[in-house]
């Protein structure tokens, strides 16, 4: 039988009064959401626009707003942040493996990453922890989790809880070139659409949604720029990572991550090849072939295998027309102009 995800300890039963209090809080934020601009989204659900970004109302409800006002950060917290399909699953695995390497050596046969999908080890605020209608605990007691706590989010930087951006907690953000991001999202969306018995979305439609900024928690460029700016202003607190660069030089980036997280690899660990062991443990080849990731599910209806497709740079060229690629390049250039950030894959392909 599948084991319970470890984070579920924070869903200890609440009494009736506490549950009703949670309900009242949600109701307040649901009323705010009801007044926001909405439109039909990419998977047939309504999407709403909050603080400049698009959210799936069916999947998330008012959870992002509740997180924003109710999450209380600790300075020791570590947050894995990203927009959809930028390598979140991978970054969660790497972060978990680095942070827990003393208690769970990466070469161990029974490493938690062999038993759980990384989304079960590094839960999302807005998908896993908050808004759990089923267990009657919609605002979990995260105080009971030991430090350092490890969370994740797809929420944009500018909408993070103030207690995170004003505290010393650390954020690892991963982005990716927009062409591969779009193609990865398009494949993923079509998995959802098939579960919902909807016609598959054509790549042209996905391109149009994405270009208009209407991908999940898009606009993609604003999401990336928010964290980019955060990392320039608070480099000790926000580490900005790029999937494409990480694939090209994993050891370099893993060491940077460990240092940033306050647990650098010692020279002894380097000699013992712990860096390589973490990379191997978290590699696409290893994780995608584990039983838990081939057969398991993390959310009802979402198979863990849907987080693993190709794990390569440049696959978008197999799906996008040259015109779409050019348009996306132009759009990216315009959006990032003056920021000092480039997200091209030309130098890698
Ligand atoms: P592709 O669809 O291009 O293959 P997210 O985790 O944010 O949903 O992103 C999913 C993307 O990351 C997918 O990209 C997926 O294949 C890739 N991915 C998942 N696990 C990976 C790993 N361990 N190493 C590299 N890429 C990985």
UniProtKB/TrEMBL annotation:
EC numbers: 2.8.2.-
Top-rank taxon, per record: Eukaryota
Keywords: Transferase
First-tier enzyme category under EC: transferase
Sulfotransferase domain sequence ranges: 75-340
Transmembrane intervals: none
GO MF terms held by the record: sulfotransferase activity
Family: Belongs to the sulfotransferase 1 family.
PANTHER family per the UniProt record, alphabetical: SULFOTRANSFERASE SULT
The protein's name in its UniProt record: Sulfotransferase
Organism: Protea cynaroides
